[in-house]
Amino acid sequence: MLQTKTLETFANEKDTDFSQQGEVEALKEAIALFRNQLENDYPVIIGGKRFYTEDKITSINPGNTKEIIGHMSKTTQDMAEQAIQTATKTFETWKQVSAEERASYLFKAADLMRQRRHEFSAVLILEAGKNYSEADAEVSEAIDFMEFYGRSMLQLEEDRHYVKSVPTEENRLTYIPLGVGFIVPPWNFPLAICTGLTVSAVVTGNTTLVKPASVTPIIAYKFVELMEEAGLPDGVINFIPGDSSVMGDYLTGHPLTRFISFTGSKDVGLHINELAGKTAKGQKWIKRVNAEMGGKDGIVIDETADLDKAAQSIVSSAFSFQGQKCSAGSRAIIVESVYEELIEKVIQLTTELRVGNGEENYCMGPVIDERAYNTILNYIEIGKKEARLVLGGAPGNSEGYYIQPTIFIDAAPDSTIMQEEIFGPVLAIAKAKDWEEAIEIYNNTEYGLTGGFFSSNEERIQEAVQRMYCGNLYINRNVTGALVGVHPFGGFNLSGTDSKAGSYDYLKLFSQGKLHTIQK
């Protein structure tokens, strides 16, 4: 079986076709079954053992704030210490396991998730506020990460990195695991990114401490439970939900922590990087930080572009999953000759979006929690003073954290709403005199994750490829929706370390090269 698992045979998982009524009914049944589990207690997992604590995280449904999804036990600092000691001990045996066996756990877990994809979608819908397609696509991405990284590990092992030998020597370069990794996934893709960050470390022979986002801990638990079902040995993944204030700095600065994989806000990512850069007493290595820290992504549109296609992409990129994507196109920069015409198209398409509960498959659901809700509304008030509000700008249904899709036009390039990551359904539009100035406005940010350029002029497209400074540039398409193995994902500047998740080279971030030379 493993012989057929090559990178050449990798294909992205197909999303569910919800035009088929049977699939809709199957998902609704899965939601009903998960609803029977609501308000359950979930444990910390260290070395395969489960620990329930009195202090708990309460996960709620952002689309219906009266509904409690579950209660997650919080890890204490003493338990965090126990977890890192367990992971360190387990590493000594796990690193000896063959690449083939390590990859086999990922393939088995992928098969299990395939069989139960609607179960995972149901949790994402209720806990994260996703609609059918957003939840289902995230499950596909999680499966892709397991399949792709498993195959990448087999390829990495097979390559064994041949280097030039001389007549009297035989030389080989191999990659060996690092040690214990502290895995900190985000809440916006709490299954896919949690899966990707974790299995990439595990398949390369490392052990992990997984701290899920506090607003979406249940879906992360379901992933860890799946890996247990796939037979992964105890202690390879240690599940440690809880408060960052209790264990975040503690584990980041711990001398036994070898690397930190983080996806989240710029401020937290910079703090992790700073703390990891300090050498703790007894530490024997320079820690690695793999960080993806968001963006202020934009789409540039010139006067030669297909305006209907551009409008559709602007709206989709800005408002899918309520703009709660690090790749969300929260800025549009339009040349003045087509500015008014394109704005009219964008407004018209946005008015067709309907806001409501993801469980009922509305196009736009709630934002994640009260803190995000208040922050976004505050940015909208700032925007009203900086630009012209032409749509939205108000809360939605009071049953959850709903906000109407909001559009500001005539925004100044240096304005707050053009510079700061809002992470909500807010689009800022700026005018440029020509396509070159538009690119300058696009580059005028401390971030550099995704960007888009709409044009039918080939010379301009090539200029945009050279001049637009971002990790993922998309021409004449959405700036969201990166596929594993197709669009390696990661950004420049304060968007992170450009780790390129979903690429073959990504696994090398969790490995270290070892040359051995044999004298003949």
Commentary on this structure:
39% of the residues lie in helices and 20% in strands. It is an alpha/beta fold and 520 residues long. A hairpin with a 2-residue loop joins strand 2 and strand 3 (49-51). The chain has helices at residues 21-35, 77-94, 99-115, 117-128, 132-159, 192-203, 217-229, 244-252, 266-276, 307-319, 339-351, 370-386, 416-419, 435-443, 458-467, and strands at residues 40-42, 44-46, 49-51, 56-61, 64-73, 169-177, 180-184, 207-210, 237-239, 257-263, 288-292, 297-301, 329-335, 388-391, 406-409, 426-432, 450-454, 472-475, 511-519. The radius of gyration is 23 Å and the shape is globular.
Q: How are the elements arranged and paired?
A:
Blueprint: H1 21-35, E1 40-42, E2 44-46, E3 49-51, E4 56-61, E5 64-73, H2 77-94, H3 99-115, H4 117-128, H5 132-159, E6 169-177, E7 180-184, H6 192-203, E8 207-210, H7 217-229, E9 237-239, H8 244-252, E10 257-263, H9 266-276, E11 288-292, E12 297-301, H10 307-319, E13 329-335, H11 339-351, H12 370-386, E14 388-391, E15 406-409, H13 416-419, E16 426-432, H14 435-443, E17 450-454, H15 458-467, E18 472-475, E19 511-519
Parallel strand pairs: 1-5, 7-8, 7-10, 8-9, 10-11, 12-13, 12-17, 13-16, 15-16, 17-18
Antiparallel strand pairs: 2-3, 4-5, 6-19, 14-15
Largest sheet data: 7 strands, mixed
Structural class: alpha/beta
Count of β-strands: 19
Helix content: 25-40%
Report the radius of gyration as a whole number of Å: 23 Å
Unreliable spans: none
**Total DSSP helices:** 15
Termini separation comes to 37 Å
Shape assignment = globular
How confident is the prediction overall: mean pLDDT?
97
Strand order of the largest sheet: 14-15-16-13-12-17-18
Strand content: 15-25%
